[in-house]
Every structure is written in structure tokens, then in C-alpha cells.
Specification:
Strands 8, 9, 10, 11, 12, 16 and 17 form a 7-stranded mixed β-sheet that branches. Strands 36, 37, 38, 40 and 43 form a 5-stranded mixed β-sheet that branches. The protein is α+β, with helices and mostly antiparallel strands. α14 packs antiparallel against α15. The N terminus is likely disordered. The radius of gyration is 34 Å and the shape is globular. The structure holds sulfanyl-(tricuprio-$l^{4}-sulfanyl)copper and dinuclear copper ion. Sulfanyl-(tricuprio-$l^{4}-sulfanyl)copper (K7E) binds next to β25 and β29.
């Protein structure tokens, strides 16, 4: 394979060498001209491009909007790594197609109805002291009020909780500084009793609320029983944020319908949008969750709705746990500063951002100084007396994110399509950058935590208009990367988002994420515990009880055990599958034709898929991940027969069979192949041992995996010999082929180990040698010369010691090969390979570099 690849590269390289224009394409200036790139473009590319194998500094989790999923991508490269299935089935991960993940997805059913999508808006990490911890991620569903928990140790969704009282939400999922609670605030007010009420009862019965979901960190689960809510007036609550630092214990929620306008366009009344934006101000809700936590212990403070405690407005007001502050009309984002002192609110319909000072808020609360109360009796604080100040930013300020530098904040302007950088302490605008159309949220690295990292910002543009190749009337969204490291913000990258409207993203330093690479054997990834049906090698079996059939199977390169399963029509069939691999990235998939089941079985995982075999016939099942060279052969058959039917067996077709002599000769052939393959393996093993492979952890784990495969040979070989001794040559041949399969797998991983080790051991290449290798590859030399091997030309290892005055000899020969065609040595070579060394028209410098490269090869001769 590698050889083939190399050769096709050589062909391409030589073709390129024919056209001089293309040859020059490796020159930066020429490429810039050809691709019409400015110096600024090239700089932007240099800031974002990651050479193959290089990893990103930050990892971003983006809501997937209407897709109900989460996207994961890297910064600064903007490469997409994963979609995580959350509220929506996701077949690659088997999410919603295997039993264990279905259980999670079905936790999200609402009042008995299956819900298979979500409108995800705000992802948030678990926190300690307000700083991000890469253990868990929470995300909300605006359409069907729910919160999901994603475990960042394997990037899988492990829990969905349904809000028991809301019909709509938006202010989730915001996390308190030590992940005590996940905050979920409602959006469109509705009756909490889930009964019918006409709109005339809006003020009396319709309510908003905030739910405080208690998070059990050790279990990684929301504890529904320990969670509670606080009733809010029907003001249409919006985004929320938890206080931290000096505002610890408090939380803040915006709203946009303090008018309590109820619309009625169909009755000739002005629509919602007009009536809801009539007042100059709406209300920010300020509440103390530590006090509420105590109130929730005493039944006189709450009412039970659907088994859930809802603290009344009255009880919260009485305890001094709930207040309102006017804020500019129809605001959107509310974001607490890293130190917790300031709360910044975006005006949306106002051109200002308002900076509230928590110290001032707290003083007024302590002095009980209010300007009145709303119709529900909630005390109102004076807006002017709580403000630190307001800054005119532009049209449509929406969301905010903080910088690593103290006092610096970035705000998105929806209407102006800009990001504004400003100083919220000194109330000064510092810089602005145009983004593409209609930015919603924005995020700087860890910018909503107590320790923002700065460096980059992301603009989440709602429209991409003409930015990308057209893909139909539904356009992708556009995430733009902005370099905020210097005094001027610079836009450096556009990433089309092909999956719903991702309202918000959250970013984390990559080294804070420590996901596992494989699972402990037999793990149920959705519970984190050992799966009750874990099956180890040798324990494979089929159990039947009445019309329930349970198959306990295993997966390993490259077979599914068992390979034949027969059931009766109507049986309930469950396949339990354990992936016995221990090697990184050796995932197997499992699908059965026509039964709508699929599982992704990563190394160590156990999953179950259940279906009713209601259709008679023969159904292939197979592995859906290209896991090894024999992946296509990783299959089996499910036979479904009707127990009421009598099946007549079809007459056997008489095909010509192999003669005894033919069988014997095939047997000998496979024995010889196995011997030759084993020799290769032994030489690799010797190389690895001689070079002390065990000192290099990465190499060591590869070697262990290879030896695992090799260890399986003994048993199979014994079966082959036993068959042969019984006179079953055909059986012996098949078992020998299985021996060969294990050898191939051993060699596959063994060679990977060898290459890895060689890389560890090789002496570093000097720049000249590096250039030499480049010239060597570009010139297509590797088409005939494979280092370490004789191929269509001689091996170049040692060429510098094969000739007298070798450097000069090699130089002259490359410069003008024809001058040496008559030399005895060269003549012999030409005859042997039936090829002449061609003139590659290298310049003197290139030839000198190639000689440096050949020297490096000789230094490392033992490694090829
Ligand atoms: Cu502004 Cu749901 Cu936070 Cu959309 S949200 S932008
Ligand atoms: Cu396992 Cu393909």
C-alpha cells in the first residue's frame, strides 16, 4: 500500500516537474499571486493553519441549534472534531440506535411523548471557583424545556432532565461557581399547572420561573429530587447568569415583557412585538439561590407542581431573596464580570450597554431602599442608583464576553454586525471590528469564566449570505475567528457551520480536557458502570427464554462472535456486544440489515441492541467501522424462521470440488506463506527488542497490542494441526488462513510500532538534509530508490561508502548521469535493473543537500 502510494506520488511529482510554472508553485510569492492572496491573508493563514499532527490550543463546544446536538471544534485551526448527539438521535455514535443510549434519549420524553429533537442554545462547563473544569458540559433545549448532561470523559450524553413546570425556556444552562446548581430560566410564560387557561387569565395564572437543578458532582448527575424552582411573574424571562466572587450566591435573569402584553393580531390588536417593547425598561430579576435553597426545606414556602417544589414569589420576597431592577427595554445578554462585581446587560433595542455595580445593588438591598414594588409585590431597586454607568456602543448590543485583561469586555452588535471592544470600568470604547452579517453570541477564550484567557474571539454570525459556495436556499451559519491578541482586533477565519443555528459557544484550554482513550473492559458508557452483559472471550453464547433471545457476543479484529444466529419470527432479540480491543481507535460498529439498529462499540465498551425479529428471512449483520484490512469480512447472518412453517431443504448443488492433490498443494502453500510472514514478524520483534522498545510508552502499548494478536495464534494453529492429522485438509487450510490473519494483524501493528520507534531513535535532521529530502522527493528519486530496500533501483543506504571519493562521484552522477553510463559498475546496474538513472536537472545546491540527506540516512541506517 505504502509502496503504491509512493509510486503514484512520484508520477505526480515527475509530471509536475515537466511544467516549469507548476514547479515554481512551491514558491510563496507565486502562490500568493496565483491564489490572489494578500500579505494579510497569508498572515491569517499562518495564525490558523495547523501542520499535520499539531493539536489546537483551545477546544470549543458549540450548541447545534435546531439539530439538538453539540459541535466540537478547535481554535485556532477551526477544525471540526465531533458532533455529540444530545437531544437528537446520532447514528455514528449509535445514539438512539442502541438500547443503552435510547434509555438516555427517552429520559427526555415529555409527559409520555417521544421527543427526538431539541433547540439547543447555551452550553456551559462544570466550574470550580468560577473557573472551567473539563468534567461535564450542560446544555439546554429551548423548545422542549430540558437540560442535558454530557460527560467530557468520553464526550457522551449521560442524562436528560425534563423541566417539570415550564413549557418554554431560554435562560439555561448557566452554572453556579462550584457547579452547585445548573440554572434554567423560562421564556414564554405559561400556566404552571399544565391546565387550560384563556389568555385573559395571563396575569393571574401564567407564570415564568427559574429552576435550580442540583448537580451531584461525584455521580455526574442532576439530582431531580433535590432540585426546586422559584416562581416569577409572567415577564418573559431571558438569559441568566450566576454571580461569582463578591456576588456569589446570587443570580440574575433578564426579561422582556414587563408590560405583560398579550398580543392578539388575529383580533385586530397590535401584535406581541409592539406591545412588548412599549415600556422604556424591563426588569432584571435578582435572586439569592442560597436563601432559596433554605426556603425549599420548609413546605410553607413552596407549592408542589408535578412532584416538584416551586417557591412562591411571596415567600421569596418575604425572605429578602428576590428583587427587580429596571433595565433598558427588551435586553438580551446578562453577563457577570470575572470578579463578580459588575453585571453587564445588552440593550438590544437600546444603543447602550448598562454596567450594574453589585456593591451598589447589595447596599440598597441591605438598606431596604426600594422605589416601590411590582404588581406581584417584588421590591424594585432604583436603576440609576445601581448603575456603574452606561456606554453607547452602537445598534443592537446583544451578548458579552470578557478579556484576560482586567476591565476589558467584548460586545456583539446584532444590527451593526460588529464586535466592540470596550472598557467597562472606565466606560470607554477601545476598538471595533466588522464581522459578517448579524452576529449573535460571541466568546473569547474561557471568556465567561472567572479567569478569561483572551487571545481569540469567536463571532457567531446568523447569516452567511454570500460567504461560501452556495448549497441551496438554506445557508450554513458562519463562525468567524478574531485575533484579539493585539491592540486592533483582526478577523482571520470563516468556518461554515453545517448543522442548525448554533446560538452560543463555550471554549476551554485543551489541556483541561482529559478524555479517556479506551474504556475499562465491559463499560456501559451511558452509566459509566460495568455493563450487566459484559462478555469476555470464550463466554460468547446464545440464551433463549420463551420468545426472548439474548446473544452475548464479542468483537475483535476482524470477526464478530457468533457468526450465525437463528431465531423464530416474532422473537425479541437482543445482541449484547463487547469490544475486546484494548488498542486506541479500534472501534467496531454493529448493524443488522433492515432492523433500524446500530451501535458504535469503542474498545472496552459493551452495548446492547434490541429488536423484534418480525420479518422472516436471512439478514446479514456486519461491522460498520473500517477497522482492519479484513473489515469487510467482519460479518455474520441472522436467520429468522417461521416456527409454524415447514421448510423443505433445497437440493444441494453439485459443484466441482478440489482434488486431494490440489488440497495438499494449497496446504503447503499456506504453510510456506505463514512461515515467511512469521519471519518478517520475528525480524520486527528483534528490531524492537534490540532497541529497547519498552522504554517508549507509545511504542510499548502498540507492541503489547501486536503481541495480543500474536498470542491468539497458538490455539488456532493447534486446531489446524488437529484437522490435518485427522485427514481434514480443507479444515486445516482454513485454520492456517486464520493463523495468517492473526499474523497480518500482528505485523500491521508491529510495523506501526517499528516506525514509531524509528522516529524516536533517528538523529535529528539538519536543515540541509531536510532540504535534501525535499529535493529528493520532489525530484521523484523515491520512484526507483526505496531507502532500506532494493526496488526498481538500488538501495541508497551506504551509497557514500560504495565509491571512492564518493561525494564527488554521487554529485557528478546526479548532475550528469550519462557521463557514467559506460563505467563498469553503472553498466552492471543498468543491466540488472533494466533502467538508466535519468537526468533530473537538479541544481548544484539541491545535489549538495541530497548528499547531506544521504549522510543522514547512513547515520540511521539500522532504522530503515
Ligand atoms: Cu442570543 Cu438563545 Cu443566547 Cu440566540 S441566544 S443569539
Ligand atoms: Cu470491525 Cu470493521
Amino acid at each position: 500500500m505504502q509502496r503504491l502510494l509512493k509510486q503514484s506520488l512520484v508520477v505526480t511529482a515527475s509530471l509536475l516537474a515537466l511544467g516549469t510554472a507548476s514547479l515554481a508553485s512551491s514558491d510563496l510569492q507565486t502562490i500568493m499571486k496565483e491564489r490572489k492572496l494578500t500579505e494579510k491573508d497569508v498572515l491569517a493563514a499562518a495564525k490558523t493553519y495547523q501542520p499535520s499532527g499539531r493539536k489546537d490550543e483551545f477546544v470549543v463546544f458549540s450548541s447545534g441549534g435546531q439539530s439538538g446536538q453539540i459541535l466540537v471544534y478547535g481554535v485556532p485551526s477551526m477544525r471540526i472534531y465531533k458532533y455529540i448527539g444530545v437531544f437528537t438521535p446520532e447514528p455514528w455514535q449509535g445514539y438512539g440506535f442502541d438500547d443503552d443510549s435510547k434509555k438516555v434519549l427517552r429520559q427526555g420524553d415529555i409527559r409520555g411523548r417521544e421527543i427526538n429533537w431539541g433547540d439547543t442554545h447555551h452550553p456551559n462547563f462544570s466550574e470550580k471557583n468560577g473557573e472551567y473544569v473539563g468534567d461535564y458540559l450542560f446544555i439546554n433545549d429551548k423548545a422542549n424545556p430540558r437540560i442535558a448532561v454530557v460527560n467530557l470523559h468520553d464526550f457522551e450524553t449521560t442524562q436528560i432532565v425534563v423541566n417539570p413546570i415550564m413549557k418554554s425556556e431560554h435562560g439555561g444552562s448557566f452554572v453556579t461557581p462550584n457547579t452547585e446548581y445548573v440554572i434554567e430560566a423560562s421564556q414564554y410564560a405559561a400556566p404552571l399547572d399544565h391546565q387550560y387557561h384563556p389568555i385573559e387569565e395571563y396575569e393571574a395564572v401564567f407564570r415564568g420561573a427559574v429552576t435550580l437543578w442540583k448537580f451531584d458532582y461525584a455521580k455526574g448527575k442532576i439530582d431531580e429530587k433535590a432540585s426546586f424552582s422559584l416562581e416569577f411573574p409572567p415577564y418573559m424571562q431571558d438569559l441568566s447568569d450566576a454571580g461569582k466572587g463578591e456576588s456569589f450566591g446570587w443570580a440574575f435573569t433578564n426579561s422582556f415583557n414587563s408590560e405583560m402584553y398579550t398580543g392578539g393580531i388575529e383580533k385586530g390588536l397590535p401584535p406581541f412585538e409592539a406591545g412588548m417593547s412599549r415600556n422604556d425598561t424591563d426588569y432584571m430579576h435578582v435572586y439569592n439561590w442560597q436563601m432559596l435553597e433554605k426556603l425549599a426545606q420548609d413546605p410553607k414556602n413552596y407549592k408542589i407542581y408535578h412532584g416538584h417544589r416551586v417557591i412562591s414569589i411571596e415567600a421569596a420576597v418575604k425572605a429578602g431573596a428576590l428583587f427587580l431592577i429596571p433595565e433598558p427595554k427588551s435586553p438580551h445578554g446578562v453577563d457577570v464580570s470575572p470578579d463578580g462585581r459588575y453585571i453587564v446587560v445588552g440593550g438590544k433595542l437600546d444603543t447602550h450597554a448598562s454596567v450594574y455595580d453589585f456593591r451598589k445593588i447589595k447596599q440598597l438591598i441591605d438598606k431596604k431602599e426600594f422605589i416601590g414594588a411590582d404588581p406581584y409585590g417584588i421590591p424594585i431597586l432604583d436603576m440609576k442608583k445601581t448603575l456603574h454607568g452606561q456606554v453607547e456602543l452602537g445598534l443592537g448590543p446583544l451578548h458579552h464576553t470578557y478579556d484576560a485583561q482586567d476591565g476589558i469586555i467584548y460586545t456583539s452588535l446584532y444590527v451593526d454586525s460588529q464586535i466592540v471592544k470596550w472598557d467597562y470600568k472606565n466606560l470607554k470604547v477601545l476598538d471595533r471590528v466588522n464581522v459578517h452579517y448579524n452576529i449573535g453570541h460571541l466568546d473569547s477564550m474561557e471568556g465567561k469564566s472567572a479567569k478569561p484567557k483572551g487571545k481569540y474571539a469567536l463571532a457567531l454570525d446568523k447569516l452567511s449570505i454570500d460567504r461560501f459556495n452556495p448549497v441551496g436556499p438554506l445557508h450554513p451559519q458562519n463562525h468567524q475567528l478574531i485575533d484579539i491578541g493585539g491592540p486592533k482586533m483582526e478577523l482571520i477565519y470563516d468556518l461554515p457551520i453545517p448543522l442548525g443555528e448554533p446560538h452560543d459557544v463555550i471554549s476551554i484550554a485543551a489541556d483541561k480536557l482529559k478524555p479517556q482513550v479506551t474504556y475499562p473492559m465491559g463499560t456501559n458508557s451511558r452509566t459509566g458502570k460495568q455493563h450487566e452483559a459484559m462478555t469476555l472471550a470464550g463466554q460468547e453464547r446464545v440464551e433463549r427464554k420463551g420468545n426472548e433471545v439474548k446473544i452475548y457476543g464479542t468483537l475483535i479484529r476482524s470477526h464478530i462472535n457468533p457468526e450465525h444466529v437463528t431465531v423464530n419470527k416474532g422473537d425479541k432479540v437482543t445482541f449484547y456486544l463487547t469490544n475486546l480491543e484494548r488498542a486506541q481507535d479500534e472501534t467496531h460498529g454493529f448493524a443488522v440489515s433492515g432492523y433500524n439498529v446500530h451501535a458504535s462499540v469503542e474498545p472496552g465498551k459493551t452495548v446492547a441492541v434490541t429488536f423484534t425479529a418480525d420479518e422472516e428471512g436471512v439478514f446479514p449483520y456486519y461491522c460498520t467501522e473500517f477497522c482492519s484490512a479484513l473489515h469487510l469480512e467482519m460479518m455474520g447472518y441472522l436467520y429468522v424462521k417461521d416456527p409454524k412453517k415447514k421448510y423443505e431443504s433445497v437440493k444441494e448443488l453439485k459443484l466441482q470440488k478440489m482434488s486431494k492433490e490440489q488440497l495438499e498443494s494449497e496446504y503447503k502453500k499456506v504453510i510456506a506463506t505463514n512461515k515467511a510472514t512469521d519471519d518478517v514478524i520475528q525480524s520486527v520483534v528483534k528490531f524492537l527488542k534490540d532497541k529497547n522498545y519498552a522504554k517508549y510508552p507509545k511504542v510499548k502499548s502498540l507492541v503489547e497490542d501486536a503481541l495480543d494478536q500474536y498470542g491468539k495464534i497458538g490455539e488456532v494453529k493447534a486446531k489446524a494441526d488437529e484437522s490435518y492429522n485427522k485427514g481434514d485438509v480443507n479444515g486445516a487450510i482454513l485454520w492456517e488462513y486464520q493463523v495468517w490473519q492473526y499474523m497480518v494483524k500482528t505485523a500491521d501493528v508491529g510495523l506501526r510500532a517499528k516506525n514509531n520507534l524509528a522516529k524516536e531513535l533517528a538523529t535529528p535532521m539538519k536543515p540541509a538534509a531536510q532540504k535534501g529530502e525535499e529535493a529528493y522527493l520532489k525530484g521523484g528519486c523515491n520512484g526507483c530508490h526505496v531507502i532500506g530496500q532494493v526496488s526498481s533501483g538500488p538501495d541508497l543506504t551506504g551509497v557514500l561508502s560504495r565509491h571512492e571519493n564518493a561525494e564527488k562521484w554521487v554529485f557528478d552522477f546526479i548532475k550528469n548521469p550519462a557521463s557514467k553510463y559506460e563505467e563498469d559498475y553503472v553498466k552492471t546496474m543498468i543491466n540488472y535493473f533494466n533502467l538508466r538513472m535519468p537526468n533530473q536537472h537538479m541544481n548544484d545546491q539541491e545535489i549538495k543537500d541530497i548528499i547531506e540527506y544521504l549522510k543522514w540516512i547512513d547515520e540511521n541506517a539500522g532504522l530503515f
